[in-house]
Structure formats: C-alpha cells, structure tokens
Design a protein that fits this description.
It is built from 13 helices and eight strands. The chain is α+β, with helices and mostly antiparallel strands and about 400 residues long.
C-alpha cells in the first residue's frame, strides 16, 4: 500500500530528529514520543494512523527497534493511560516506554480456563492495602519482570463480571512466589505465580474497585490486535516470504505435494496481508475496524502453524535435530535467522512454539464465538448462570462435579 512521499512532514521531522540524535538509546527514544506516537503527549505525539505508519517505516529504515517490553507498551500501558490516576501515569509510563521496567500479565488462572471472568484470586481491602491470595498461570516473563498487570476478585457476592478489580502488582512483594514452566520448546518463557497474603497498596488499584473487567477487556483488545500482526508467530519471527525466499535460493522444490503446500501458504500469506491493508485503509479513512479485524487472529494462527510445519517438513530428517539448547525465555526468531537457512534451530523452535498459537490471547474457539455473536449476529449460547453471584456459581459448579 502506497504511504506518503519522501517529503512528507512526518518523514522530514523524524529524519531531522535522527540527525540530532544518532544512535539513540531507549530513554532518548521514549522521551521523543516515537515509541508510542499514537499516545497523547507527553508520552507520544498524538499521531494519526498515517503518521504512525510513516514513523514505523522510518524506524525500520533506520534500523531502530523499540524497547522489548511488549506487555507493558502494548497492553498494560494503554490501560493505565485510559484509566490510571495522574500519579500512576507519571510513575509507571515513562519507564515502561524506555524498557527500564519490564512488565508481565497476571490474568489466566488454572481453574478459570477460557472463562477468564471466573477467576478466583481474591483481593480483600484492609485499610490502605488489598490482601491478595490465589494463583496465576501461563504468566509470560514473570521471572524477569518488575511489575504485573493483575486482575483479582474484590467482591464475590455479585455476578462474576461485576466483582473484579485491576491492579498494578510489583513482583517483589513478600508472599509472591514465581515458579518456572518449561514448555515443549525447552525454553523457560512461562511461569505460575502464587500469592500468599500479599499486601498490594490500595494506590495500585487502577480505575474504580469492581470495574476491573471493563479494563481487562481494554487490555485484551490490545493483546489480540498485537498477536495478529507482523511475523507468523504473534508478530515475531519470519514472514511467509522468508520461507519462500529460502526455497527459491535453494533451487526450488520439485515435489508436487510440497509445491502445492508452498503455493497454499503463499496465497494465505498474501490474503492476510490484504486483510491487514484493508484494516489500515479503514483506519486512514477514519472508519472503525470491520469484521476482517475480528477474524484475522483466527486465520493468522492457523497460517503460522502451516508455515512452520512446512518449514519443518522441507528440512527432511534434519528437521528432527536440534543443535543448541534454547535460551532462557527465548522467543527470538528474527528474520535474519530465517535467512540462514531452514536448518537453523530457530525454525525448530518456531515449529514447537506454533502449537500454542490458537491458545494464547484467546483460544480459537473463543474467537469463533466472538465472530459468531458479534460479527454474524448469531444467538448467544444459553447462560444458566445468568443473574447468579460468583459465589453461587462456585457452589453450582461444585455440585455438578
């Protein structure tokens, strides 16, 4: 999609800034507003969609990467910007954007499954603190994070969506235990987190008490958009074209079945890019996202699995061999790695990691329900717990076991 000419004011402003700040560090980049140009000042530039795209293009051209703090910058930060106090914004947002403080997301629980609003972690008010007890799971990066965005139940005597609150949780508070989960890739990316009488200051409540589900939806909306962009592994890793380039560089493939699979993933990748461009065009025209944005994550997850499975199969027996152990929390699958050939261990890691794509950020089944109800207008499933308090649903669930 054609963007803007070389003399567009946003391009010229960025290049002038880069001339004055060669090789900028993360703090300089964050202070400039270029990390989140769509945020209002002083954190961003209040940039519109076209200016955002131009800035992204210029950053890539200059070889400048934003700080590696995706949960903070992409999900938690917008929520705090939306509902946090002035003190919370001033304290947390600058160090989020510079990458000085890493954040994780403490949402999922073992007993809630895909029904996140059924969470059981309790936060009980006790003067100037909330006393927190419970457990979270699949907490990416908790072992290297200074803070987490956390939702907990503050009122069990109302329907489950009504009694949830949203907190900023320092990970070094007494009573917090982080246990590693080593996934099938061999990497330590995930954790389970236990809370035993943890005292969170009441000033760390974001928004109003018991209004946390509304804020959680703000976070989740940003998460699902983030997970459906970029490379084939939730915005990480190679593009479909990288696989095609490697096959062409090796002389192509004469196997008819493999050629058809290559054609299929090429077509899918092109369709997903067209959907992305359609969404961007709508934003540039000031229109809200259409149904294409609702289905893109479903399609992108399936596509990522197909690309990585095809890469694995193209390596033949060599695809069964891993040369190096993955690094702690290693999710790096850069496009430079892809250019080194399909025998690179990053493709092996990507194949294993791709099995989780339809689960993270809302399972494919949940996403299909959203599309069915919100896009196609199909009737919702009967809710036998409608009108019941969360505490009553727990008695009912226990009785049905």
């Amino acid at each position: 999609m054609e963007l803007a000419p070389e003399d567009h004011p946003t391009r010229l402003a960025f290049r002038a800034w880069l001339d004055a700040n060669p090789n900028p560090g993360n703090q300089v980049l964050a202070a400039s507003g270029y990390v989140v140009p769509h945020w209002p000042r002083p954190y961003g530039l209040g940039a519109g969609p076209l200016d955002q795209l131009i800035i992204d293009e210029e950053l890539e051209r200059a070889g400048i990467s934003r700080p590696d703090n995706a949960i903070a910058i992409g999900w938690g930060g917008p929520t705090i910007l939306h509902a946090g106090t002035a003190e919370q914004k001033e304290r947390y947002l600058p160090k989020m954007l510079s990458g000085e403080e890493i954040w994780c997301q403490m949402f999922s629980e073992p007993g809630a499954g895909s029904d996140l609003a059924n969470l059981a972690t309790r936060a009980e008010r006790d003067g100037d603190i909330y006393r927190l007890n419970g457990q979270k799971i699949w907490t990416s990066g908790a072992h290297r994070s200074q803070f987490g965005i956390l939702i907990a139940r503050t009122n069990p005597d109302v329907p489950k969506h009504k009694g949830i609150s949203y907190f900023i949780c320092p990970t070094d508070l007494p009573g917090i235990e982080v246990r590693p989960i080593v996934d099938m890739t061999g990497a330590h990316s995930f954790n389970e987190v236990f809370f035993n009488d943890v005292e969170i200051p009441a000033k760390n409540l974001v928004g109003e008490e018991n209004d946390g589900w509304r804020l959680a939806k703000v976070t989740l909306a940003n998460e699902r958009v983030s997970l459906s962009t970029g490379g084939v592994l939730w915005g990480m890793g190679p593009q479909t074209a990288d696989l095609m380039n490697l096959v062409l560089a090796s002389g192509g493939n004469k196997d008819q079945v493999m050629r058809q699979r290559l054609a299929d993933v090429f077509i899918e990748g092109h369709i997903l890019d067209l959907i992305r461009q359609r969404t961007l065009a709508a934003r540039l025209a000031g229109k809200p996202p259409g149904p294409e944005s609702s289905i893109r994550k479903i399609l992108a997850d399936q596509h990522g699995q197909k690309v990585m499975a095809l890469a694995k199969d193209l390596t033949g027996p060599g695809g069964m061999i891993l040369n190096n152990e993955p690094e702690d929390g290693g999710r790096s699958l850069a496009r430079d790695d892809a250019q080194q050939g399909l025998a690179n261990d990053a493709w092996h890691y990507g194949y294993l990691f791709s099995q989780a794509l339809p689960v993270g950020g809302g399972s494919g089944e949940v996403q299909r329900n959203i599309v069915a109800e919100k896009v196609l207008g199909l009737p919702r499933e009967p809710n036998l717990q409608r009108g019941m308090t969360w505490k009553e649903t727990q008695h009912q669930n226990y009785g049905n076991r």
